[in-house]
Every structure is written in C-alpha cells, then in structure tokens.
Amino acid sequence: MIDIDIKKSEEQAKQPGNEHKMNPTPITIRKDYKGSEKLLGKIALISGGDSGIGKSTALHFAREGAKIAIIYFNEDEDAEQTKKEIEAEGSKCLLLKGDVKDEEFCKSAIAKTVSHYGKLNVLVNNAAMQFPAERLENISSSNFQKTFETNIYAYFYLAKAAMAHLTAEDTIINTTSVTAYRGSEHLIDYASTKGAIVSFTRSLSKALAPKNIRVNAVAPGPIWTPLIPATFEGEDLENFGKDVPLGRAGQPAEVGPAYVFLASKDSSYMTGQVIHINGGEIIGG
C-alpha cells in the first residue's frame, strides 16, 4: 500500500506535476531488474519521459542497452534527474523541452533525435493530462481541447513525423488507459482520448504491418505518477488505487517492463494489441 502524504502531495497545483515533490517518491525501476541487451543499439524517443511511466520506460530501455531522447514540458529538475539516472545506466540521454500540443515542436523533436543519434527505432507516445470533473457540464471547452491536443493529437503528430525514419522491425508504443475500457464518470474527456488511442493503435498497426513496423499499446490502471497528486486531492488522492482487486496503486516500475517487451523482439509476433497492467480489473479488449 502506498502511504500518501496528502498535505505535501496537494502542494502540486499544476499539471503535469513534479516527481521530486511527491511523497512517497515513485519507484521507477527495481534494483533487481536485470538488463540483457534486448534493446542494444536502439534509439528511443519517449514523450513525457521525465517522470512516472515515461521515466520508468526510459530507465528500463537504458538498462537494456538503448539510447534515449525524452520529451518533457517544463519540469526541468525532474528531467535533469532522469538524465542523470539514464547516464548512470551507461546510456545517453537527449532532453527535448517543449509542448507536444504544437505540431511543429513534435516535428522538431523527431528531427533533433535523428540528428543527434543518427536514427530512430522506438517511439513511445506517453505524455498525457487530465482534468477531473464530476459532471459533463463542468468540463470546460478549454480543458477539453487541451486534453485532446495533448493525449491524442500529439500521438498523431509524433507518429506522422517519425514515419520518414522508422523501418522494418522498429516499433511504436502508445500509452492508453484502463479508462478506455471501463469508462470514468469523472474523467469523461480523458477516457475518451484514451479510447481514441486504442483505435489509433489498432488502425496504425494495420497500416504499418506491410512494412513490419509494429504498433502496440499499454493500458495502465492506477499508477502512482506526478499526474495523480497534480489532479486529485483529499479522499480521492488518499484512496487512489485502493478499489482494484490488488487493493493498491501500482508503481511505474511495474509498468516499464511491458514497454521493453513491446519494443524488443520478444513481441515480434504482436501488433495492434494492448497490454493491461491495472491491478486486476477484468475488462474487455
């Protein structure tokens, strides 16, 4: 069970939140996780890679031999810390600061990654935001637009820009959510974007299958990331994750290895699929 410091966690008033202010700090990689060069020589670009699931993915990729580029919004301290941890794994890290809602920035992020490393093999679309609202009438048009532009438009922008560089056996991995399958009465717009990501994953996988470029997704349940204290408060924050069968929120370290699987040859016969890491919720799809 995660013992959340409510007072400290509620100090985070803006998204996407800061990992270094969280109490407890999320676990992003297990000390006993053994890398086996599954991604040796690969170049991976991860949006929202400075913290949470994105950071966990970056660290697991680095331990498996990949070099990393991470996109982050404005969390400089988290990004620099993540870079240090990636480099401590014996890898390299390129930091790309910007707003994924901006298509030109997304194009630039792809171009800078390829210019810096010479190629791109794995694109992880992961950045997201959410604005909880108890009623549909409380969802502002502005927040609705920001949620869609961040959570699905950016995935399209980055994937489109990556097409000129991805080749056979390269991969795209999208982060969707359990809310895409069971819905969420207080995250209607967010859940809708996550449903769109599922359809985007399935459709793009069919389009790219002839090129042997695989497209899959991960659908996390309640995971302890900076987005949670940045968007929930009070009892909603204190009880986060307690309603799943395993009775607790998950750690990013429990999600990161799924991205390694989908990026590596271990999943060579998988495309258009979604891996569900949600604490035991039984859902369709």
Average pLDDT confidence is 93
- CATH homologous superfamily designation: NAD(P)-binding Rossmann-like Domain
Query: Element order, helices and strands?
Result: HEHEHEHEHEHHEHHHE
Structural class computed from helices and strand pairing: alpha/beta
| Uncertain stretches of 5 or more adjacent residues | none
Shape: globular
CATH-defined fold name: Rossmann fold
Number of strands: 7
Domain unit count: 1
User: How large a portion of the residues is in β-strands, by DSSP E?
Assistant: 5-15%
Specify the helix fraction band: 25-40%
Summarize the biggest pleated sheet: 7 strands, parallel
Using the coordinates above, name the CATH class. Alpha Beta
Distance between the termini: 28 Å
Rg for CA atoms: 17 Å
**Order of strands across the biggest sheet?**
3-2-1-4-5-6-7
CATH architecture: 3-Layer(aba) Sandwich
Task: Note the total helix count.
Answer: 10
InterPro entries: NAD(P)-bd_dom_sf, Sc_DH/Rdtase_CS, SDR_fam
Family: Belongs to the short-chain dehydrogenases/reductases (SDR) family.
Region (Disordered): 1-25
Organism: Maribacter sedimenticola
Describe this structure in words.
The protein is built from 10 helices and 7 strands. It has one domain (6-11, 39-277): NAD(P)-binding Rossmann-like Domain (Rossmann fold). It is globular and about 45 Å long. It is α/β, with parallel strands linked by helices and 285 residues long. Helix 4 packs parallel to helix 5 and helix 5 packs parallel to helix 7 (188-208). 38% of the residues lie in helices and 13% in strands. It holds the Pfam family adh_short_C2.
